[in-house]
Amino acid sequence: MASLTVSEIHSYVGPRNVRPLHLQKCDNYPRGLSKLGICMDSRTLRTMAAAMDSTVLPGMTTTASNGVPVQALQTWLPGFVATVTKPRKIDDLIGITTVGSWEDEEIIQTVMELTGKAAVYGDYTSVPLSSWNLAYERRSVIRFEEGLQVGYLEGARAAKVKIDSASTKRNGAAIALEINRNDVGFYGYNDGTNRTYGLLNEPSAPAYKTLPAGASGKTQWAYKTFQEITADLRLIANALLVDSKSVVDPTEDECTLTLANGAVTFLSVTTDSGVSVKDWLTKNYPKWRIKTAPEFDLANGGANILQLHAEGIAADEVSTDDKGVWSQLVPAKFVTIGAKQDVKVYNEAFTNAMAGVMLKRPYACVRATGN
């Protein structure tokens, strides 16, 4: 086996600290962006800036007619309404770890198991020896690419309606790459030989626990009372406590409860005195975050799912990693491959790299279905 080289973790953004990144100027982008997986070389930036500077909004060149043209009687609302895309939630649920490089093939987590068992002392008995064993959890890096091309005539015509075609397409390319990264974060990516998994198909994730039916005979929260929904939540909280052998205490440790979009509304179910399920959660489990994911809707054979996981294991005194439970492994969020100005067209190309997610501590995660 080759010598073990531990890759530097360039940055880690926890799920409670993920924020949108807004760039106001791209002439000399901050060097620290590379630690977030955003890589732009200065030559490409100069080419992009030159292309943007060459787009000049044309002034009005026509002569008004004697009559009143219909354009003069039109009121235009400000801005453009873009088509909606599904919210990308993976960063919000488990954070993002920027580690490795775009060109890497794999990201590996070393798992150490301590072995040995103490025995009753005896003067002439053999001393039992402790030892250790290493295992290696691998995740394959995959890369996507997206680009843009703007023709000279296209750019001039777009400028007539105050659209910078290149800038608009650049934003679209960045969003397309982020959509792919989010999809891999939930579903993984299978090319037949790789090991790139998502939140919903991570091989070490625990099996789903089926929630009990309520008085209605159904498991869905839409048919359950306050008492029945809170009983379900106590069940998964207790399962996390038991499965982790009390390493995780749901009443004291920071946890994330992720629900399907179709179930979160029923946290507003109340008692006769007006206390809601959400009020009950806030009082009994004050350190829980409640999040939703559209990917959880009908995710288990047509049934909704929910997940409760600890965000970190601070009590782990032996491990030397970040003590996290879930890790989203992203060598590069956004990389500019290059930009080129030809005679009549302008081109840019971008790429990203990701290795899906890894559940490093399965005992600190509980999943249930049927809500």
Describe the structure.
The protein is of the alpha/beta class. The protein folds into two domains: 10-57 and 87-115 and 134-198 and 327-355, no CATH class; 208-324 and 361-369, hypothetical protein PF0899 domain (hypothetical protein PF0899 fold). It is 21% helix and 26% strand. The chain has seven helices and 15 strands. The strands form four sheets. A five-stranded mixed β-sheet has the order 7-15-10-8-9. A hairpin with a 3-residue loop joins β12 (332-341) and β13. The radius of gyration is 27 Å and the shape is flat. The two termini are 47 Å apart.
Descriptive key words:
Major_capsid-like; five-stranded mixed β-sheet; hypothetical protein PF0899 fold; 26% strand; single chain; alpha/beta; 2 domains; DUF2184 domain-containing protein; four-stranded mixed β-sheet; 371 residues; 21% helix
Could you give a short description of this structure?
This protein is an alpha/beta fold and 371 residues long.
Secondary structure: elements and pairs:
Blueprint: E1 9-13, E2 38-39, H1 42-53, H2 90-94, E3 96-99, E4 106-115, E5 131-140, E6 142-151, H3 152-160, H4 165-187, E7 208-210, H5 226-243, E8 255-260, H6 261-264, H7 277-284, E9 288-293, E10 305-310, E11 326-330, E12 332-341, E13 345-354, E14 357-359, E15 365-369
Parallel strand pairs: 2-12, 3-11, 7-15, 8-9
Antiparallel strand pairs: 1-3, 4-5, 6-13, 8-10, 10-15, 11-14, 12-13
